[in-house]
Fold this protein.
Amino acid sequence: MASPPARRVEPALLVILAGVVAALHVGKLPPAIPVLREALGLSLVQAGFLLSLVQLAGMAAGVMFGVVADGLGGRRSMTLGLLLLAIASALGGFAQGAAPLMLLRAAEGFGFLLVVLPAPGLVRALVEPRRVSAMMGLWGAYMPLATALALLLGPLAIAALGWPGWWWTLAALSAVMAIGLRHAVPADAGAAGTASPVPWLARLRRTLAAPGPWLVAVSFAMYSGQWLAVIGFLPSIYVQSGIAGAWVGVLTAAAAAVNMAGNIGSGRLLQRGVAPARLLTIGFATMALASAATFAGSGDAGLPPAVRYVAVLLFSGVGGLIPATLFALAVRLAPGEGTLATTVGWVQQWSAFGQFAGPPLVAAVASAAGGWQWTWVVTGACSVVGLLLTAGLRRLLAQRAG
């Protein structure tokens, strides 16, 4: 009796997994910083640059990499990006100083963009229309999933293999994913997965002349800046509060992971016909209220620690409604099929700007105030701007529907 044929992983899911693998390279550094500082003699400033350099490519030229990805085609761009990540991470494991590690970190940023920018359009091309919103919800969870995995697995891998072994493990994983993507995803996966015949400058002009990409991109900056600021400083906040070291990693990873629930839930709700503007409104309003509950007041003036942590979970979990909704809108509001990755690149550029500017701004306010009690003012301002942009998106969607 012949055995049944082995089930293959759905190509769209493989595209999402490739995004998770690429994002692991973004999240691999935080758990390695203490070891790197000791092994390579890195200063705190150099460690900070290593954290931010992976966002340099996205902040400086996200939209241009989107243009490149549109020109290469989705599968080819993602394969090249994964191979670049594999090579840079493999070489990074041999680094003996800060300078080569920083250079390779920047190269990883370029590879990351080549992977993630064409992915939403490629996912859309690989699934039937009725499943697009749900799959965008899964795609929106790629970054928090990778962040949580890196926070949980990174310390274990570093303890067993050293920090170079952590780098080499992710290099091998990226190479395997590149091979799998190359074989599983069709070369002609719809218009979003083939090279665009439109000249790159025309695609760029068309994207930046449309209001939709701007509204989506700046909204993403308002989300990403405050999310990374809160999640990124949680370990420092918890250490200052006297929480044991082992619990710091668990609590922070859980706060990052719960963001996936919002992303996946957003995709399901969009599929069921819930208006995108409603989800964005709920997300930004909850982030504003939850951050105020988390940080307003200090000592006896603040809420109990358990209540504050619940507020952090609401901040991240309900806030997760925002990125998946914005990814879906980026695909919907792109000015044409040949500009999908260009539009996502513009969104990624503003997302990177938010991640670059948000944490230092929160840190500056905390330093000036002598504590974290005024952090909610920064996050609340981001949410207010996000709500104003949501109103603009609501009007634009109504115009297109009419």
